[in-house]
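Action item from last meeting closed. Structure (408 res):
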């Protein structure tokens, strides 16, 4: 199967770069990494369910792990549009590598805004992989309602903090160098406080490996904290302000980049379908599958669906870059729009390519399995539909702690 992302290569890179950024040739760089490493590794990453270490290292060496880090710490200083292109391109080859990278980018936005300079420099240099650790066993996909606690611990007079939590799904668990971690506030009011937790912190443990239907190499496993001790300086932002910080930085990045991953998955299967339809001949009829009007029509429907998502993702990026009035609404919609489309398009290509799509060598079945994760990944499609309805109707995004809608 071709690793090219079709005639749409580079569309997300169109337009002006973010203010104050450098302009490296991101498209050429990620294309080279995909062709040299990611596409070669992808089948075995999926088959064995192993972390895509070689691909992550290749991204680091190419400077792509430091894409969102500021120039002042040695990073590329790029914005979300460039990151979306990288994630889309990776997803067209390896969904697991794309997921690891998008989680790293989402966590990086928080570290860039509130983290220590030494970690920011390490991310910029490609020597530090980070990720989000928000969802918990007790509140499941409701990442905005952490049950994990942070308690003062001043036994040695240094003002330490003890974290206790059962994180349910952490991408790159046991592989990342740090976790952007949520807890209930230490002292202040508010729903959440964020922490930067080094992976080697005493009291942290990863519970087993990951054996899933799709994204099999993303090492998404539970992480437990039992009296994991941190300095209070590990707090990202103010105590109790974690929800507002996450909504302003990490959530837009996570939702847009998830949509970009879904887009890359759709482009991959549509490329495979095009090659299959034009390259498979019905010898007894003397024509290809592409000569069948019904197959052409179905392919066209799937192509239109994917192109509609591309337009939506591009518009969402533009809305964010220009501070458009509807930017928040677009961000709340974009992952749901792309996730549902990806499930539909990959399923459609499975049907369109028939028995050939069930073979591993075509790659369609792998992308089909990978595509299904986005709709159930927090915030789920159902949650995003609820958020969109609330935002459109002028209601608060989250219920008050007493279960009301937060209005007097």
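Sequence:
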């Amino acid at each position: 199967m071709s690793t090219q992302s079709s005639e749409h290569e580079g569309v997300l890179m169109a337009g002006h770069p973010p203010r104050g950024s450098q302009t490296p040739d991101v498209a050429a760089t990620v294309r080279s990494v995909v062709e040299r490493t990611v596409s070669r590794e992808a089948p075995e990453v999926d088959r064995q369910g192993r972390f895509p270490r070689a691909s992550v290292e290749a991204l680091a060496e190419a400077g792509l792990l430091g894409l969102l880090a500021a120039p002042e710490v040695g990073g590329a200083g790029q914005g979300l549009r460039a990151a979306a292109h990288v994630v889309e391109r990776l997803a067209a080859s390896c969904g697991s590598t794309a997921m690891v990278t998008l989680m790293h980018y989402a966590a990086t936005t928080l570290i860039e805004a509130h983290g220590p300079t030494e970690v920011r420099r390490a991310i910029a240099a490609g020597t530090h992989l980070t990720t989000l650790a928000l969802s918990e066993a007790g509140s499941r996909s409701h990442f905005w309602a952490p049950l994990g606690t942070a308690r003062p611990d001043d036994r040695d007079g240094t003002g330490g903090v003890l974290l206790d939590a059962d994180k349910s799904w952490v991408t790159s668990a046991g592989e990342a160098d740090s976790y952007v971690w949520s807890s209930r506030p230490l002292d202040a009011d508010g729903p959440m406080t964020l922490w930067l937790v080094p992976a080697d912190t005493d009291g942290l443990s990863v519970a087993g490996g990951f054996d899933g239907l799709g994204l099999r190499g993303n090492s998404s496993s539970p992480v437990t904290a039992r009296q994991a001790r941190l300095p209070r300086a590990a707090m990202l932002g103010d105590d109790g302000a974690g929800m507002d910080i996450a909504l302003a930085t990490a959530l837009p990045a996570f939702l847009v980049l998830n949509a970009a991953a879904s887009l890359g998955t759709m482009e991959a299967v549509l490329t495979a379908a095009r090659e299959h339809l034009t390259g498979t001949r019905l010898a007894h009829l003397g024509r290809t599958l592409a000569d069948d009007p019904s197959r052409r029509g179905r392919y066209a429907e799937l192509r239109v669906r994917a192109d509609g998502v591309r337009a939506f993702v591009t518009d969402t990026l533009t809305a964010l870059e220009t501070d458009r009035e509807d930017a928040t609404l677009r961000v709340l919609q974009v992952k749901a729009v792309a996730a549902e489309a990806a499930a539909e398009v990959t399923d459609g290509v499975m049907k369109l390519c028939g028995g050939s799509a069930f073979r591993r060598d075509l790659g369609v079945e792998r992308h089909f399995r990978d595509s299904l994760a986005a709709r159930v990944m927090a915030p789920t499609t159902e949650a995003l539909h609820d958020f969109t309805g609330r935002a459109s109707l002028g209601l608060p995004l989250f219920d008050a702690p007493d279960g009301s809608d937060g209005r007097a």
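Note appended to the action item: Residues 1-11, 13-23 have pLDDT under 50 and may be disordered.
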